[in-house]
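job 3f2a | input accepted
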Amino acid sequence: MAENNKENLKDLVLPSESLADSEQLKKFVLLQVKRVITNLYKGQLDTISDLNQLYLCKLSRNKEKIPVLSYNDLSFWDVGLMGQNRKRTLDAGNDAIRNIEEIFQNLEVNLKEENKQ
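job 3f2a | predicted structure (117 res):
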């Protein structure tokens, strides 16, 4: 992934160092950060879904072995709780993206020349 981004940067930035190039680079970096954060919270959503399926499967397999009162206490994971966890994950991801966008508004981004030491 890092090598692919390096190639994209080479194609993106022109040799001159104008304000337009800086803005273009800033947009590119912000887009990559958004993509990474989005992948992160999509992974979290997949994990929540997997846990939900595992929980329901285990609960239904053992329903006969668990006394009714205990079973009712154990069946806390419902559609509402699943939705609440999904919403929190999405909200956290979207908040992170908004915060990073805010930070980027005050930055000027430039690439180092490869030949400089």
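job 3f2a | The radius of gyration is 23 Å.
job 3f2a | closed
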